[in-house]
Amino acid sequence: MKFIILTLFPEMFTSFFEASILKRAIGTGKIEVKLVNIRDYTKDKYNRVDTAPIGGGAGLIMKAQPIIDALKDNSTSSTYKIVLSPRGNTFNQAKSIKYASNLNEILILCGHYEGFDERIYKYFDEVVSIGDYILTGGEPAAMSIIDSVSRLIPGVISEESTEEESFNNGLLEYPQYTEPYNFEGEKVPDILYSGNHTAIEKWRKKQALALTRELRKDMFDKYELSKSDIKLLRELDVEETPKWEKDALEKGKKFIKKED
User: Fold this and answer.
1) What is the model's pTM?
2) Per mean pLDDT, which of 3-7, 46-50, 131-135 is the most reliable?
3) Terminus of the chain with fewer CB atoms < 10 Å: N or C?
């Protein structure tokens, strides 16, 4: 996957691409990044990339000419061109999966000031927003999209790491634990030590349902509950340990942790 970023502040991306998973992905050729400084394309005699809005108003508007010249010089007909704007479609996990699965080259335009000359939009394939709030510029939004898409490119991270993440199946991810068993009085659920993988998966599904219902009602209302999901939720609501969990705990009691 190749990312082409049109920006007024390419230096903002330096540390972003020089650390952790993205640095490794670039090093192994899984992703490629090209930073394009829009200022390099201005034809304004004063080297401006923005001017006051015609008709009056606050702030400055990014000019069409340097943006479109940068776009034309750094893309082809197969490049998927995105402009970041509050008016856009909201970016989410489904869109990230779509980009990672179907595209080879993505160009992202980062805005600044009060926005763009309206005439630039027709040159782009999609207008995208990362949420209903305003940033000082599009660079942080571009980083979010690049990070989200990159991690879905085969080989960037292990496939196992992405299979059961939040949003992938319409639910938040279940709770995760690591050592120690007892941390400041809160213990890891015994079922996770039972060795019964069927029961563990069932428990995790129940917790994912519970967390989504509690924290993201908007997601929960869209999720299509199966008969087994409904049964798990009923078990939660009566606050009793179901037979399948008791049986798993009994059979796996020799594996269950004691106090550290």
Assistant:
1) 0.76
2) 3-7
3) C
